[in-house]
Amino acid sequence: MTEVADRTQRYLADFEAFARNGASGAPVWLRELREGAIARFSELGFPTMKQEAWRFTSIAPIAETRFTPAHTAHSPLPTPAEIERLCVGAGPRVVFVDGRHAPTLSTSADLAGGVQAGSLAAALRTGAGGALARAHVARDPRWRESAFAALNTAFLADGAFVHVPAGVTLDRPLEVVFLSTGRAESDGPIVSHPRSLVVVERGARAAVVETYAGLSDGMYWTNAVTEVVLGEGAWAELYRVQREGSQGLQVATTHSRQERDSYLGLHVVTLGAALARHDIITVLDGPGAELILNGLYLLRGAQHADHHTVIDHAQPHCASHEFFNGVLAERAHGVFTGRIIVRPGAQRTDSKQTNNNLLLSTEARADSQPQLEIYADDVKCTHGSTVGPIDQTQLYYLRSRGLSPEAARSILTYGFGAEILDRMRHPEVRDRLDRLVRARLA
Amino acid sequence: MSEHPLLQVKNLHASAEGREILKGVDLTVNTGEVHAIMGPNGSGKSTLAQVLAGHPAYAVTAGQVLYEGNDLLAMAPEARAREGVFLAFQYPVAIRGITNAYFLRSAVNAIRKHRGEEELGPVEFMDALEEKLKAIGWDSSYLTRPVNDGFSGGEKKRNEILQLAVLDPKLAILDETDSGLDIDALKTVAQTVDKLRRPDNATVLVTHYYRILTHIEPDVVHVLAGGKIVKSGGKELALELEEKGYDWLREEAIVA
C-alpha cells in the first residue's frame, strides 16, 4: 500500500514544484484545470492489470521508475541531420525536444492563409490562441477516466498548436515532431508530457503528421495527449507515427471530435518503444461525419503495444471505418481493443471494424477485443478480427506462380502493411511511410 | 521435338486427410494437345489438378508423374511453375494489400530469373501487359486492385486467365475455370485460351460442363470417375456425356 502511494506521491511533489515555478504565469482556467487533474491522478493512481482496460498491459516499468520532469531538464538539441532521419515529411515542421519547443529546429514560421503551427505555450500567451485552447483543451471529459491523461493535464505546459482557419487549404502536410533524447538526469530518466491541439475549422483542409521518435536507446517516458477538432465540412488527415527508441516508454491519448459533414482520416503507424499504449477516443458529433481510423503496428523483439480505441457515434448518419493490422515477430505482443458506441438517436450509423494480426513466430502474441455498445436500432455495425500465422493457402498460391517461399512470405507480410498504407490519401506521406514499413520488414 | 511426352501420369494415387481420392490415374499429354477431363462432382478432378501443381494438402501414396521426363512430384510448387506448369485455380486466392500488378510482375520476374532472363521493371512490364489485358476485356484499373480481393467470381476467373496469358506456360491446367461464368465471360476466357494454343504447349481442361468445349476443341476427352480415368475418347465423347450424363458410365464400370 505504502509503495503504491509512494509512486503517486512523487508526482504530487513534482507537481507542487511545477506549480510554484514554471506554471505560475498561466491563466486561471489552466491553473484550475491542472489542479483538478493532479487531484484526479491522485485519486486514480496508476492502473493495474486487474482493471479491464489494462488486462493485457503492465505499466510496471513506468510505475516503478523515478522519472525526472522534462521541464526541469535542459537537453542538448539534436543536429538537423538527426532530425531529417526521423521526420516523415520534408515540409514545414514544428520540433520539440524532450517536450520543449525547439524554435531553431522548426521551419513552419511562414504559412499562408493565417495557418498557425507552433508551440501551445506560445499560443496560450496570445488572446486568440488562449481562447482556442480554453475552448478545446480537455473538452472531452473522458480524460478523467485515465490516470495518464490526468497526469498529462496536470503537467500541461507545451506541445504542438496547429490552427487552420475556416476555408483554408493547407497545401503541404505539416509535421509536428516530438523527439526524446533518452538522456537521464542524475535523479532518473526523463518524462515529458506533450500536449497538442489541432483545430481545423469549418471547410478547411489539412494533413498533419505527428511524429514521436527517440534519438537514442536510452530509457525515457513520453506521456502525450493530442486533441483534434474538426469543424463543419472540414477535411483532415492526421498521421501519427510512433518511432520511440528501443527502451522508450510511451503512453498517449488522442481525442478527436468532428462536427457535421467533416472527414477525418486518422492513421496510426506504431513501430517503436519497448512499451506503448495508445488510447484513441473519437467522437462523431455532427450528422454526416466520416471517420477512417486506420492503424498498423509492426513489432519485434520484446516490444509491447496496446491500442485502445473508442469510436463514439453521438449523431445520426455518420460513418466510421476502422482497420488495424498488426505484424508481430519474435516475442512481440500486440493488443487491440476496439470499442464502438452508438448513442441513442444515432440512427443510420454505418460502422465497420477489423483487426487482423499476423504472427511471424510461435512466441509472438496478439490479443484482439471488439466491444460494441449499440443503443440505436437502425444501424449497420460489423466487426471481425483474426490472429494467426501466414495463410498456407495464400503461400501456396504465390508459390504456384513461381515465387520462392521466402519471397511469398515477404509479400504476404508486406501486404498486411500495404493494406493500411493504401488508405492514406496524401501520396507524399504515404510513400514515405511505405518506405519506412518496407525497411522495417526487410 | 522432345523425346518425352510433356506429361505422363502413371497409376497415381493421392489422398487428403487420410482419405484416398485418386485411385490409379493414368494420363499422357503431348505438346500441341488439348485434353479435357470431365466427370461428376467428387470424382477427383480438382485433386488431380492440385496434385499436379503441388498442393501441400494432398499426399501422393503411389504412382509417378513425369514432366518432360522428370519427376514432377519431387519438385516444389515454385519449381514446377518456373519449369512451365500453370494451374488456373478453381477458387483463386485473395491477397489483401498486394496489387495485381505487383503480384503479376513478381511472378513473371521469378520465372524470368529462373530462365536467366533480365527482370522487367514496372514500366516495361506494363507495356508487355497491355495487349493481354485487352484480350480478356480488362482495363488497367484491375491492376491497381488487390489480388482477387473484392473480385466477383467471374473477375477472379478472368484474373487466372490473365496470369495464364502473362506467364505463358508449357502445361496449362484449368480447374473448372468455366464454372460460374456467364456466356460472354466464358467466350472471352475460351478465346484467350484458344489463342494460346501452340505446337509446343498443351492444355488440360478440367470441367464439369460441355459448353466450354464448344469454344475450345479438345483432342482427347477423359472421364474421371471414382478416382480413375474410366473412359477416354475424342471430342464426341464429350457430346455423349452432355446428352447422357455420367450415370451410364458408372453402370459400364460395374459391368466391366
List the helices and strands and how they pair.
The complex is a heterodimer of chains A (442) and B (256).
Chain A: H1 2-20, H2 28-44, H3 60-63, E1 68-69, H4 80-86, E2 93-97, E3 100-101, E4 116-119, H5 120-124, H6 127-136, H7 147-154, E5 160-164, E6 174-180, E7 184-185, E8 188-192, E9 195-200, E10 205-214, E11 220-230, E12 235-243, E13 248-258, E14 263-270, E15 275-284, E16 290-299, E17 304-313, E18 319-328, E19 333-342, E20 350-359, E21 365-374, E22 380-388, H8 392-399, H9 405-421, H10 427-441
Parallel strand pairs in A: 1-8, 2-6, 5-9, 6-10, 8-11, 9-11, 10-12, 11-13, 12-14, 13-15, 14-16, 15-17, 16-18, 17-19, 18-20, 19-21, 20-22
Antiparallel strand pairs in A: 2-3, 4-5, 7-8
Chain B: E1 7-16, E2 19-29, E3 34-38, H1 45-53, E4 58-67, E5 70-71, H2 77-82, E6 85-88, E7 95-99, H3 100-114, H4 122-135, E8 146-147, H5 153-167, E9 171-175, H6 183-195, E10 202-207, E11 220-225, E12 228-233, H7 235-244, H8 247-255
Parallel strand pairs in B: 3-10, 3-11, 6-9, 9-10
Antiparallel strand pairs in B: 1-2, 1-4, 4-5, 7-8, 11-12
Helix pairs in contact in B: 5-6
Q: What attributes does this structure have?
A:
heterodimer; A: 442 residues; alpha/beta; 2 domains; 10-stranded mixed beta sheet; B: 256 residues; Rossmann fold; 4-stranded antiparallel beta sheet; 8 helices; globular
Task: Report on this structure.
Chain A is of the alpha/beta class. Chain A folds into two domains: 2-286, no CATH class; 392-442, no CATH class. In chain A, 25% of the residues lie in helices and 38% in strands. Chain A has ten helices and 22 strands. In chain A, the strands form two sheets. In chain A, strands 1, 4, 5, 7, 8, 9, 11, 13, 15, 17, 19 and 21 form a twelve-stranded mixed beta sheet that branches. The model of chain A has no long low-confidence stretch (mean pLDDT 94). Helix content of chain B is 36%, strand content 28%. The relative contact order of chain B is 0.18. In chain B, helix 5 (153-167) runs parallel beside helix 6 (183-195). In chain B, the strands form three sheets. Chain B has a six-stranded mixed beta sheet with strand order 6-9-10-3-11-12, sandwiched between helices. Chain B has 256 residues and is of the alpha/beta class. Chain B has helices spanning 45-53, 77-82, 100-114, 122-135, 153-167, 183-195, 235-244, 247-255; strands at 7-16, 19-29, 34-38, 58-67, 70-71, 85-88, 95-99, 146-147, 171-175, 202-207, 220-225, 228-233. The chains are: A alpha/beta (442), B alpha/beta (256). Chains A and B meet through helix 8 and helix 9 of A and helix 2, strand 7 and helix 3 of B.
